[in-house]
Amino acid sequence: MTIHCSPIGVVHSRFTESTGMPIQTAGAPDEPGRVEVFPEFAAGLRDIEGFEYLILLTHMHRCTNELLEVVPFLDTESHGVFATRAPARPNRIGMSIVRLQSVDGLMLHFTGNDMLDQTPILDIKPYLPRFDVRSTGRVGWFASRLDQLPQVRSDDRME
């Protein structure tokens, strides 16, 4: 089966190379970025300014590797790609939870940027804590690594 997705917009970011950029939005909560929504999707933005956070689903367009086992940025050991947030995955779909700062026509200004410039946006969803937050202590191999997040930046291992 083949699934076809077309971008609804594009990210504008100061990051033009993956090396050195944040690996998750929580690791760079103040990093600014913008989403330019394409004109044919303008009506879909109605009422979006009422949300503090958005979930951006993206296509990690610059990652060419499609791996099933990776050494993620927060570890030195290999894991199955589905047990990581690594970009080198079969469909290269990314998810970023960003804080909406303002809406200016077709431009969404946000903070929490962990995306490359020109990253295609596949979808935008409102973040709703009652729907999206789950309290758990079971976070797999991440448990011993989460405190490192603010300091860790990406390198070229996923390209």
What does this structure look like?
- By secondary structure, the protein is mostly beta strands.
- It has a single domain (9-152), classed as Elongation Factor Tu (Ef-tu), domain 3 (Beta Barrel), CATH 2.40.30.70.
- 3% of the residues lie in helices and 28% in strands.
- The chain has 1 helix and 8 strands.
- A 6-stranded antiparallel beta barrel has the order 1-2-7-6-3-8. Strands 4-5 form a two-stranded antiparallel sheet.
- The two termini are 26 Å apart.
- The relative contact order is 0.32.
- The mean pLDDT is 91.
Summarize the structure.
A 6-stranded antiparallel beta barrel has the order 1-2-7-6-3-8. It has a two-stranded antiparallel sheet with strand order 4-5. By secondary structure, it is mainly beta. The longest helix has 4 residues, at 129-132.
Report the mean per-residue pLDDT as an integer.
91
The largest pleated sheet is described as:
6 strands, antiparallel, barrel
End-to-end Cα distance? 26 Å
Shape: globular
CATH architecture verdict: Beta Barrel
Q: What's the gyration radius in Å?
A: 16 Å
Q: What top-tier CATH class fits best?
A: Mainly Beta
From the helix content, strand content and strand pairing, which structural class follows?
mainly beta
- What share of residues are in beta strands? 25-35%
CATH topology descriptor: Elongation Factor Tu (Ef-tu), domain 3
The number of domains? 1
Query: What strand order characterises the main sheet?
Result: 1-2-7-6-3-8
- The CATH H-level superfamily is YaeB-like
Order of helices and strands: EEEEEEEEH
